[in-house]
Amino acid sequence: MIKNQEIVHKISAYEKWKQTILLQEESNSHNWRNIHLLQNKLLHVTTLGLPEKLNDIRLDKAELERIQKSTGSKFLTSDKKTLYEYANYIWVQRGYVAYYEIMVKMEQQQAKELIKLLEEELAH
Predict the structure, then answer these.
(1) pLDDT by residue (tens digit) across 78-119?
(2) Dihedrals φ, ψ of 60, to 5°?
(3) Contacting residues for 18 by C-beta, under 8 A, at least 6 apart
(4) What is the DSSP string of 61-95?
(5) Which of 36, 74, 102, 115 can pair with 64 through a Cys bridge, CB separation 3.0 to 4.6 Å?
(6) Spatial separation of the C-alpha atoms in residues 96 and 108, rounded to whole Å
(7) Between vectors from CA 96 to CA 84 and to CA 28, what angle results, nearest 5°?
(8) 48 forms bridges with which residues in the sheet?
(9) Residues contacting residue 77 through CB under 8 Å, at least 6 positions apart
C-alpha cells in the first residue's frame, strides 16, 4: 500500500490520462477510416503514393494527369459533397494528430514527474 498521497494522486492522474489518450487514439482511428472510405470514392487507387509518416496522404500527380487526359476527370465522382466531406475529414484529422502529439508529450512529462517522486520516496 502506498502511503504517500502525492504519489497516489500522480498515479491516478497518469492512469486517467492514459484512458484519455486511448479515447483520442480511437477517435483518430475512426476518422482515418472515414478518410480512407471517402478517398476510395474519390480517387483511383493508382494515384495514391507511399506515405512518409502516419496519417500522411501522398498523391501521384503524374498519374492524376494521365487519368484526367484519358477520362476527362481526375476523380471518380463529381459529387462536390463527397469532396467537401473528404476535405473536412482531412482537416479534422490534422487537428486530432496535433492534439494527440501534445497529449503524448504531456503524458511523458507526467511519467517523468512520477518517476522522480518515486525515486525520492525510495531514497528515504
Answers:
(1) 888 988 998 899 899 989 989 999 999 999 999 999 999 999
(2) -85, 100
(3) 107
(4) HHHHHHHHHHHS-SSS---HHHHHHHHHHHHHHHH
(5) 74
(6) 18
(7) 85
(8) 59
(9) 41, 42, 83
